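Quick review question:
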């Protein structure tokens, strides 16, 4: 098509890519992860009661109306797994997850049943992206200083590449670390949600970032469906049978000594990369209780209240 400088100019959303000043906040990963269940993205308890009984009884098709007590009983039984699981795929949830890293993103992307929407990196400036740092690295004063200096240099190289006018943001972004602050929307049905939380809450194989996102997701569910607390559908200290079966095999992830709930098999101290528990690997300047452990203790107590 011919060039026409007389047509109206389009103001693109990516108009501020060039000549953006560098600005970076370094944030503790464990302190800055946030998970929010979006209002309007899920059905209320009463909305579930309005149709779930008919759905699970459709095989017989013999009842048009249910008392509140009958509907409540059917709903509880559904969550306990006493009805066909198809009903658990009929209602969804959308979470806003903030403060995770690209490492965390890559883990959740493996759950193919989740639908994602992300703040992308190719069509906007990344010169002012924040960076998250695990608490264990923060607790190594000399090394974290070098890490920050390295990230600052990566930011400077990124800006020079973009502002040169010779390298696209699509290519320049490759110089940035995996620890830039990310924000993702994650939408999934109930059956997927339960699978995701149960897998990512595990502390033997999954990293703390995954643990926190999973715990916060479940905490949001208990906020909107408080009646589920008594059902104990998620155990914050669940056993990892897969880990137990494979910890002494050649294809296992054997980094730390087993947590108490999984310390149920014979092993040698040199079976693991670190002859320590995960909470003992907290940097050179340790504190009595890690941020992760504080959050874990708080949620464990909260989920057990008023049972």
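Suggested answer, residue by residue:
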């Amino acid at each position: 098509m011919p060039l026409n400088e007389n047509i109206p100019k389009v103001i693109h959303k990516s108009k501020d890519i060039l000549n953006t000043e560098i600005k970076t906040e370094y944030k503790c990963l464990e302190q800055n992860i946030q998970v929010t269940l979006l209002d309007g993205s899920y059905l209320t308890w009463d909305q579930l009661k309005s149709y779930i009984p008919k759905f699970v009884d459709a095989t017989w098709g013999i009842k048009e109306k249910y008392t509140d007590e009958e509907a409540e009983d059917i709903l509880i039984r559904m969550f306990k797994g006493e009805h066909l699981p198809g009903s658990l795929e009929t209602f969804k949830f959308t979470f806003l997850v903030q403060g995770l890293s690209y490492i965390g993103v890559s883990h959740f992307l493996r759950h193919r049943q989740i639908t994602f929407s992300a703040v992308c990196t190719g069509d906007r400036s990344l010169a002012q992206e924040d960076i998250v740092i695990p608490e264990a690295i923060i607790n190594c004063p000399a090394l974290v200083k070098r890490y920050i200096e390295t990230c600052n240099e990566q930011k400077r190289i990124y800006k020079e590449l973009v502002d040169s006018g010779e390298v696209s943001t699509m290519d320049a972004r490759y110089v940035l670390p995996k620890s830039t602050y990310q924000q993702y929307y994650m939408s999934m049905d109930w059956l997927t949600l339960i699978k995701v939380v149960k897998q990512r809450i595990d502390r033997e194989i999954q990293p703390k970032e995954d643990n926190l996102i999973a715990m916060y997701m479940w905490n949001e569910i208990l906020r909107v469906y408080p009646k589920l607390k008594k059902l104990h559908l998620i155990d914050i200290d669940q056993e990892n049978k897969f880990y137990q079966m494979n910890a002494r095999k050649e294809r296992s992830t054997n980094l730390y000594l087993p947590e108490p709930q999984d310390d149920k098999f014979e092993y040698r101290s040199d079976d693991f990369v670190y002859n320590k528990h995960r909470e003992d690997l907290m940097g050179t300047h340790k504190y009595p209780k890690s941020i992760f452990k504080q959050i874990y203790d708080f949620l464990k107590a909260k989920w057990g209240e008023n049972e």
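Why it works: The chain has a mean pLDDT of 93. The two ends are 69 Å apart (CA to CA).
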